[in-house]
């Protein structure tokens, strides 16, 4: 989840580089001001990653009472003149839905890691994988809860990951993917063991 969120954030920053530069130029700050501005934005980098995570999981990010950025839906209200907000997309496209694969891959990975060093039964592989995916998503959602807040009043109130949508979009899909990951590892292990037995018998 962290890796996918960082990737989504980097893609947004690079693809909207011109808008970010325009916002920075509009502030009219000198060299020292630019350094301070960059330092302040870097301090908020973990928050930005959590916001990106809410996007890739499908819940989206609220930008004030009327603003929302999510796969398939973009509504932009009033935003502060902070350069990093230039990375906020103004339109949505079909490519946004591809980011949902991040949560699926994260769940599959969590489930596979949970059972790869054990010898579970079919049922154990499923519930252990599901538990791993659920816990991973729940921890991410909990961290994202602390990345919500206000940067002002009225139009700048209620910024951050969208709840309660993120609670279930970060847990249920990851739990299902985790169960599939656990079962996939078990199936691969059993298939390999069967092939080894056939080779020995042959």
Describe the structure.
- The protein is mainly α.
- Helix content is 61%, strand content 6%.
- It contains 8 helices and 4 strands.
- Strands 3-2-1-4 form a 4-stranded antiparallel sheet, with helices on one face.
- Strand 1 (61-63) and strand 2 form a beta hairpin.
- The longest helix has 30 residues, at 172-201.
- The protein starts with a helix and ends with a helix.
- The model has no long low-confidence stretch (mean pLDDT 86).
What is the structure about, briefly put?
The protein has helices at 2-15, 17-27, 31-43, 45-56, 101-115, 122-145, 165-169, 172-201, and strands spanning 61-63, 68-70, 73-75, 159-161. With 202 residues, it is mainly alpha-helical.
List keywords for this structure.
elongated; mainly alpha; 8 helices; 202 residues; 4 strands; 61% helix; 6% strand; 4-stranded antiparallel β-sheet
Low-pLDDT regions: none
Strand content: 5-15%
Major sheet description = 4 strands, antiparallel
- The share of residues in helices is 55-70%
Radius of gyration: 21 Å
Biggest β-sheet: strands ordered side by side in the sheet: 3-2-1-4
Tell me how many strands there are. 4
End-to-end distance: 45 Å
Give the averaged pLDDT, no decimals: 86
Helix/strand class: mainly alpha
- SSE succession: HHHHEEEHHEHH
Per the principal axes of the C-alpha atoms, what is the gross shape? elongated
Summed up, the helix count is 8
């Amino acid at each position: 989840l962290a890796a996918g969120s960082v990737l989504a954030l980097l893609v947004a920053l690079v693809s909207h580089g011109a808008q970010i530069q325009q916002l920075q130029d509009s502030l009219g700050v000198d060299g020292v001001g630019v350094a301070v501005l960059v330092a302040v934005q870097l301090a908020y980098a973990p928050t930005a990653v959590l916001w990106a995570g809410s996007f890739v999981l499908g819940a989206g990010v609220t930008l004030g009472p009327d603003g929302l950025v999510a796969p398939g839906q973009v509504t932009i209200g009033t935003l502060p003149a902070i350069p990093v907000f230039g990375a906020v997309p103004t339109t949505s496209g079909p490519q946004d839905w591809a980011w949902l694969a991040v949560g699926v891959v994260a769940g599959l990975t969590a489930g596979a890691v949970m059972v790869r060093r054990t010898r579970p039964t079919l049922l154990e592989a499923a519930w252990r994988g599901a538990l791993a995916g659920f816990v991973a998503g729940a921890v991410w959602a909990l961290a994202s809860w602390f990345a919500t807040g206000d940067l002002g009043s009225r139009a700048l109130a209620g910024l951050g990951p969208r709840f309660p949508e993120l609670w279930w979009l970060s847990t249920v899909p990851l739990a299902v993917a985790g169960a599939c990951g656990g079962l996939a590892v078990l199936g691969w292990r059993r298939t390999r063991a069967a092939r080894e037995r056939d080779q020995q018998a042959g």
